[in-house]
Write a structure and sequence with these properties.
The chain is of the alpha/beta class. It has ten helices and eleven strands. The two termini are 22 Å apart.
Length: 274
Amino acid sequence: MVSSNRKYVMLSFDTEEFDIPCEYGYKMPLEDQVTLSVYGLNVILDILSEKKIKATFFCTTNFAIIAPNIIRRIITDGHEVASHGCNHTSPKSEDIPKSKKKLEEMFGVSILGYRQPRMQKPSIGDVQKEYMYDASLNPTVIPGRYLNIKKTKTIHKKNGLIIIPASVSPYFRIPLFWLSLHHFPLFIYKFLLKRTLTHDGYFNTYFHPWEFIDLSMFSKLPYIIKHNTGEQMTLRLMHIIDYLKQCEVEFITYSEMAMIHEKYYEIKCDNSML
């Protein structure tokens, strides 16, 4: 928990090729996967610009190489770019340093954070060598996806690396990520969000650009993925942002939160020695 009277919100977007249809029998070239995500990204960036808030974008190098201009817009708009590996479909351990180097070379910015594709577990040692923080942990249980019920659910350090888990509710660890906003009634999502914000002092969640496209055109995709996409998702995200603003929070990037965490624990350690 970050000890502060202030409340923080971290929004993040996994900026990746839209590879999910390939899992359900669609043949979609990489360039088309990126084109769809670029459309969704422009929707997201327009929302953030209108609401005057900052976010963090975890980018694959596959995406960045094909669509560098949208990454430049992310940076110009004042957001943080972090690494999401090289290939979203089949990540490899060598992608951890490789993606950081490539993004820094292409865009001239420091890449301080990493998120493993599909929020899977990366090699902490490999991430620690290259990055300030890791944001790959969803500390909950989702059958077939995550089994992290015993993992620490708030920001902490492991082997010198700052771990920033996705937010879950204080009780029962109900996940508050993208699927939750698609499917929960908004009053339930906001109730859980407020409880989490009060308990932890911050709220941290993630989405994908392709959620802001109407996915009903993909008939083979499961309902759980297609529900409330496109304009409905745009309206839902805007509603949640407006609600959070009423809670008088500060929207910050992940690297800013990592620095707040470091400063707080430096002060705590210094005071403990008095």
